[in-house]
Amino acid sequence: MWKAELAPERRKAVNSVVLAKVADLRAALPNGKRGESWQSDQSLDRLPEFAPLVLAITAAADELFRHLAVVHQGFAITGCWANVNAPGAKHSGHVHPNNFLSGVYYAQTGVGASTINFHDPRSQTGIVRPPVRELTADNADQVVIQIEVGTLLLFPAWLQHSVDENQSTAERISIGFNIMFSDYAETMSRPAWSSGERLRDQRSSTK
Q1: Is the alpha carbon torsion for 114, 40, 47, 202 positive or negative?
Q2: Nearest 5 degrees, angle CA 126-CA 162-CA 160?
């Protein structure tokens, strides 16, 4: 798990254009009812308005790859989309196939809509689950990460994650994305939702 927080001025600049563009994409749609969610298409990284956020994502991924000592020939964003959760909306557990990393950036959150859950990927642990006096980091079957406006998370694409019900009075708006190594992305099957779309390489130094 890799967590970064955008500096206040950079966060302000990113959010102003991201939120305006998301509002524009939804302009012709009715306001979401309680419990409803909306997602954009998966190519937002190609929009000029998202260039500042793409730079932040690229920088975070570069830093993570250096930390992991991963040798690669560049990487590509294989999908980038907006998630809007109305009050009462949630997102059930899922993973992101055919990618190495997944991530999310939080443009609008609030009290009651400030967490994301990461679930234990070892299905066998559910065979015997004795009662516990209290949940701790050592006996829980999930990790709950606290987030706020400006938080940028990166995590393994295979790691199941979910979002609890939005208990705030405002919409929760985040930008999801996937990352894959360029040489793999050119030869492996791509996610079904973006089949045939052009990959835009995010070349990085491997010095």
Answers
A1: positive
A2: 55
Contacts of 144 (CB under 8 A, 6+ apart): 115, 116, 117, 118
pTM of the predicted model, to two decimals?
0.85
Ordered per-residue pLDDT tens for the chain, 207 residues: 899 999 999 999 999 999 999 999 998 887 778 989 999 999 999 999 999 999 999 999 999 999 999 989 899 999 999 999 999 999 999 999 889 999 999 999 999 999 999 998 888 887 888 888 988 878 888 899 999 999 999 999 999 999 999 999 999 999 999 999 988 866 665 555 543 343 444 444 434
Distances (CA, A) of 203 to 44, 98, 177: 18, 19, 17
